[in-house]
Write a structure and sequence with these properties.
heterodimer, A: 361 residues, mainly alpha, two-stranded antiparallel ribbon, 16 helices, 2 strands, 1% strand, B: 480 residues, alpha/beta, 2 domains, 6-stranded mixed β-sheet
């Protein structure tokens, strides 16, 4: 460790005012990645909570581990390539903007780069992954001023862009998950592979009148976007995220609860036409979106009441899109819509809070 | 009472309940400045000999609160900057009394209560009284709408009320009676950790009939003992007159001043924190040399020495030689050790966090060894809402921060930054390491200054208008 620290010390002058001063954000990011910053408090309070943004963001990665493990099992090594591409393409955009703005590189990108491949179909061409994440980080985050100031979830913006630009690749049949011992763990499956058995996703099948078995959907043994197939893995990671308080439970309960209620109302009013509650909860990206995408603290409302409204809106809109529009899945649009109205919810709640505060004292 | 927010940081180095008496030093250094006071009006000359309890200096801005000599000695003014040096001399010499004046006319008019208040001020007890809303010195001759007495000090690690109360319950109840005699019908609220305890029953029994005290129980969570929070929770409005906040030491000082007529110069302070070898309470007098305390109790020389608690205290000035009159404790924490390798992916069994992001949330009742490290890089606000959750004042720190970021000063006023009690919890929990507390303190100062300027401008214009009117009249008179 000491050797590494000494190495950083020796090369620091090159980046601070030296030849490579343009790349100072990159150097700082590297140094602070390996070694905690040495700054101390200047006044009261003299101590600080150990939690920092790095830790906060790495908790999301930890929560994604069950999801990643299951995805590797079902969809194979290609996921690894997608993650690498995603980190590289998104990282370049982030670094370029940090250099231009002369700001630090933000850790939020670590989460975006990991989330993005998990919401894509497993056979998507790798270049599309790169284009998608680059667009997402650029248009969804950097244009607004970087982490903390963005309105939309960058990963969802990237996916939305791909869905509109390359609808065939995005919504076509996905490969089914690998069966048997070992799954596809050691396979590299692309769309043209011979043993890739493609099949429509459960939501598409449901439109055609066949409901996929719930137990398969629970385990993830179905076709669909990489990370969203296995409900159990998502819940496992999601509950961890709730306990570590990185994700707010109000948003998650709002989404899942309102989706369940809406699905229940639809199902019991016309059981022939609408799928049952549990099926809706496990199908598509609802759980993944509820736990990992909608809970992004930056793009969701800050106030607690706002979080409830935001969650309920996403849940209901998802079910409406699924059941009454031409689209088979609505989570992506629902969350984007939620991101748009989140500041408005906040504004309203804050207004009431300030009205309450006005008479204090 | 329903409280909002608040958070107890579990922190190693809590001072024990025992009180140790420090040996009397040869030289005392009395600082001329403390948090609220600036004793700029000197009452003595260089080389003068003074008695115990003599007035050395006064603070003209704060109702002439005196700085009293803790014991007899010879005064040197020029040796230490901003300090009065008091060197010990033989105790039995006769000296002239310094700075004793006849009570002003208004006090005599007020009768017995007025004279008592004057005594409180002259004998150094008044410096333990706070205006509940803004922590300044209240007007000693004003009438409060209520007195809030708190026996609790929940901030780590200021002097504990229960330690100060030990063996002095009689003085405390007598002090309560003395305070009651200052009032007419206004209520006295006494804040206790438990109102069903033996102690509470004992206090009630002792003061029966002589003082009407309302006992209140609050949860032991920092900073519910803050006077501003308590006043708000009790429904006392700031426009209904001042509310006096008094801590245990204030009640004891009132007893000492009014019952015995003695000056209040000796106090009990805490010495706590990780870098202290045996955290304990000390009985010292104002002006006690800091260095001799540190030599005895501090482990490492490069530790940070704080005047007050860990969340609101100030670092001791490098020029500070003695304890000031307001010192509520000394907290010493170490500067951070070597930079941690890959700190953010460690399980975190040994660190206590507000959020559950560390393994330590599976542990119960453990106290962390905090250092002075910021523990992270400054980042933009990510709206995690932790600051609002812990805020005891019920305001939205992130919102004020965002307004401030866009220079919307008027909006920050609407968001009631003035309700902030500067407890420091928002800065503590912020994962983006934004120093919200100092931001708000600066902002409040700015708003105060602007308001003052507006007031002055209005006065100026009013004056101009009057002059113009007078001129107009004069011209009209001439015309007639």
């Amino acid at each position: 460790m000491k050797i590494l620290l000494r190495l950083f010390e020796t090369i620091r002058p090159t980046f601070e005012g030296g030849k490579l001063r343009v790349l100072k954000p990159v150097y700082e990011a590297m140094e602070n990645f390996f070694f905690a910053p040495s700054t101390t408090t200047t006044g009261a309070p003299h101590v600080r909570d150990p939690l920092d943004i790095k830790r906060l963001m790495s908790m999301v990665i930890v929560a994604l581990l069950p999801c990643l493990a299951v995805s590797f099992y079902f969809f194979g090594l290609r996921l690894l390539a997608m993650i690498i591409i995603s980190y590289m393409a998104g990282g370049i955009v982030e670094v370029v903007f940090a250099i231009v703005r002369k700001e630090e590189i933000n850790e939020g990108f670590l989460v975006t780069g990991m989330l993005f491949p998990l919401i894509l179909p497993p056979t998507l061409p790798l270049w599309m992954v790169g284009v998608g994440v680059a667009f997402g980080v650029f248009a969804g985050k950097e244009l607004f001023g970087g982490t903390g100031r963005n309105v939309f979830n960058p990963a969802i913006v990237g996916r939305c862009f791909l869905a509109l630009a390359y609808p065939a690749a995005m919504s076509g049949n996905c490969i089914t998950a690998g069966h048997g011992f070992g799954g596809r763990m050691l396979q590299y499956v692309t769309a043209s592979n011979i043993d890739a058995v493609s099949q429509a996703t459960p939501l598409v099948l449901a439109k055609q009148g066949t409901l996929t078995d719930l137990s398969h959907m629970f385990l993830g043994n179905i076709s669909g976007s990489i990370g969203e197939t296995s409900a159990i893995a998502i819940i496992l990671g999601g509950v961890f995220l709730l306990f570590s308080r990185v994700a707010n439970w109000r948003t998650v309960v709002g989404i899942v609860g309102s989706a369940a209620v809406a699905a229940g109302i639809f199902h019991y009013s016309d059981p022939e036409r609408f799928a049952p509650v549990l099926w809706h909860l496990c199908a598509g990206g609802l759980l993944f979106g509820a736990f990992f995408m909608a809970t992004d603290p930056v793009t969701s409302p800050v106030t607690n009441a706002g979080k409830w409204a935001y969650g309920v809106m996403i849940g209901v809109v998802t079910l409406l899109i699924r059941n009454f529009t031409g689209y088979v899945e609505g989570v992506m649009f629902a969350i984007l819509l939620g991101n748009i109205v989140a500041p408005i919810f906040d504004e309203i709640v804050v207004k009431f809070r300030l009205m309450g505060l006005r008479d204090e004292k | 009472m329903r409280f909002k927010g608040g958070y107890n940081i579990l922190f190693q180095g809590k001072p024990a309940g025992t009180v140790k008496v420090m040996p009397e030093p040869r030289v005392l250094y009395l600082p001329l400045r403390s948090q609220r006071f600036a004793f700029s009006e000197l009452c003595i000359t260089d080389g003068q000999e003074v008695n115990k309890g003599d007035v050395l200096a006064k603070d003209p801005m704060n109702y002439a609160v005196p700085l009293l000599a803790p014991r007899a000695g010879t005064v040197t003014l020029k040796e230490a900057e901003n300090h009065i040096k008091l060197e010990c001399v033989a105790q039995d010499k006769k000296h002239t009394h310094v700075g004793k004046a006849e009570p002003p006319h208004i006090v005599q008019e007020m009768g017995a209560a007025g004279i008592k208040r004057y005594k409180l001020l002259q004998l150094g007890a008044w410096q333990f009284f706070y205006d509940a809303y803004n922590q300044v010195v209240p007007d000693p001759l004003g009438t409060p709408q209520a007195i809030i007495i708190s026996t609790l000090s929940l901030e780590p690690f200021v002097t504990r009320g229960d330690v100060q109360l030990k063996n002095r319950l009689l003085n405390f109840t007598r002090g309560l009676e003395q305070l009651q005699s200052l009032l007419e019908y206004q209520p006295i609220y006494l804040i206790l950790p438990e109102i069903k305890s033996e102690l509470a029953a004992l206090i009630l029994e002792r003061i029966r009939g002589y003082a009407s005290v309302k006992l209140l129980e609050i949860p032991l969570i920092y900073p519910y003992d803050n006077f501003a929070i308590l006043a708000r929770k009790l429904g006392l409005k700031s426009n209904g007159g001042p509310v006096w906040g008094v801590r245990t030491e204030g009640v004891l000082a009132a007893d000492r001043a009014l019952t015995f007529g003695k000056a209040c110069t000796v106090k009990i302070i805490s010495v706590g924190g990780i870098s202290v070898n045996s955290p304990v309470h000390l009985k010292v007098m104002a002006g006690y040399p800091i260095q001799s305390i540190l030599e005895k109790y501090i482990l490492s020389p490069d530790a940070r020495v704080i005047n007050g608690g860990i969340l609101t205290g100030n670092i001791f000035d490098s020029k500070a030689l003695g304890l000031d009159v307001e010192c509520r404790g000394i907290t010493v924490i170490p500067e951070p050790p070597a930079r941690e390798f890959l700190g953010f992916i460690r399980p975190g069994w040994d660190r206590s966090s507000y959020s559950g992001c560390f393994l330590s949330s599976a542990r119960k009742n453990f106290r962390e060894r905090f250092t002075a490290a910021v523990r992270g890089e400054r980042r933009p606000c990510i709206s995690c809402n932790f600051c609002e959750e812990v805020c005891p004042a019920g305001i939205m720190p992130y919102l004020i921060h965002k307004y401030l970021y866009r220079d919307l000063i008027e909006e920050t006023e609407e968001a009631r930054v003035d309700l902030c009690i500067e407890c420091g919890l928002c800065s503590f929990v912020c994962p983006s390491k934004i120093d919200l507390r100092s931001e708000f303190i600066k902002l409040k100062g700015l708003i105060e200054k602007e308001k003052e300027e507006i007031r002055k401008e209005k006065e100026r214009q009013e004056k101009l208008r009057q002059e113009e009117a007078a001129q107009q009249e004069a011209v009209e008179d001439i015309n007639k």
